[in-house]
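Honest question from a wet-lab person: if I give you the sequences of every part of a complex, can you actually get the arrangement of the whole thing, not just the pieces? Trying it with mine:
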Amino acid sequence: MSLWRLEWLRLLRTKRWVALLGVYIFFGFLGPLTARYLSEIVSFAGAGGATINFPPPVPADGMAQYVSNALQLGTLVSVVVAAGAVGFDAVPEMGVFLRTRVPGTLRILLPRMVVVCGAIVFAFVAGSLAAWYETWALLGSPGARAVLAGIGFGSIFLVFVVALVGAVSARLNSVLGTVMVSIVILLLMPVVSVAGAAGRWLPSHLAGALGELPAGGARPSDYLGAAVVTLVATVCLTWLAVVMAARREL
Amino acid sequence: MVRTTGLTKRYGAAAAVDGVNLMVPAGSVYGLVGPNGAGKTSLLALLAGLRRPTSGSMIIDAGPGEIAVLPDTPRFDPWLTGREVVSLAQQLSGAAPDSVDRVISEAGIAEAAGRAVGGYSRGMLQRLGVACTVVGAPKLLLLDEPASALDPLGRREVLNLVARLRGVATVLFSSHLLADVQEVCDTVGVMKGGRMIFQGPIDRLLVGSALPRYVVRCRPPIEPVIAGLRLQEWIAGVERSGPDELSITVRSLADAELRLMAALAGTGARVVSFGPEEVSLERAFLELTQP
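Yes, you can. This is the full assembly:
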């Protein structure tokens, strides 16, 4: 039993993998379906006698619908799962077990962050592939290059989310507090982007790439600045998480 | 060997550990006793490196991987089995894999080892904690109330295990169960208000701290005897410890040996038996720690 296997078992036995895969794959299939039948759904639901005409759906709508759904609930589930994994001192007696046996908090944190990060990215990619397949089946094929680039940028954003949760957890040492603060920070980033051009450099800019690139309104190069900032921020937050966890007393 | 000099841990104005000079000889079993809030757990946390001292110094003759800590209420991921928890502790401490089954058996959880820890009782968790603590054959064991949640059989097994470690490892354990400390410890440290108010061999604590006490059995009536003895200024106290039994505390052994028999005769006591009361660790502890 190693620390890596411990994290793998945490994912499997606590059914966190089901929550992650479930939410992303569910929206992966639901998003394009909603885009394809939006006008029928609205008509069926009843519009009070009014007639609403939607433009004919295009392939980009399928991916955009997936991104708008998955990025809200999916990110929330990712934050909760990550907070449960990286908060190794949240129960002090469990923290004592690890801290008195493992030299250095990096060795404790690294498997936790890497495994949970891998699981979240895997779930996001699986959901994106599901959305891509269904978009192709229902609406036509979105550009492969745009979709793959969007998946890449979205994955980088989720890696940043895990690093953010790690740093917040190292500061707060409470799973609930970590979830709340991380969500507030993630919600604030799009608000900042509305206020000015700085939003193009923020990690949150990457989150929408999978919806925007297939539509043709943006090019992959438009996200490179945000990708670099996000990667640097990820490294800094991970370093901060390790340093703050090392300084904490039990 | 563990030695601290002026070890202090402050939280604001309050000192959880206040200038403690601890000396635990290598290979010994050291008992740390004290009332709630005395600073025992804080001292163990400082020695384990879980907290940083405000001032003072520590010398610990064991590397980071050679110190094992058992908290008073051990907790583990509830979805792991007992065997997996011990296996993780073994892997992290670098011990031989074949030691897992042995320590599980010694801790008395062999039958439950395949079950998820979430279903363990508090006593079983403590046994599991003990197994995790000893599996790596550490040089220094810091045990915080290791037998507090155990039934009499479990307590006996843990005490036997601790006793077997004498000479093999250095053991420092805190306990409210003074009988446990008296049974397995070579040396005892008594803490109160963050300070170490006594440290040394148990024998010295028993002989040196408590006032001498005698137990006298008399035929009734016993009240005139109590009243007569209380008039003597060299007698610190007289208590009725049974229907026809008195516990007499004297200020010095010399006073008792010279005057007690005469004083009893002076009260008209019809003495059935007379003898010194054996000093228990509990009594010595209470006399040290009570205001």
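Two things worth pointing out. Chain B has a mean pLDDT of 87. The first helix of chain B runs from residue 40 to 48.
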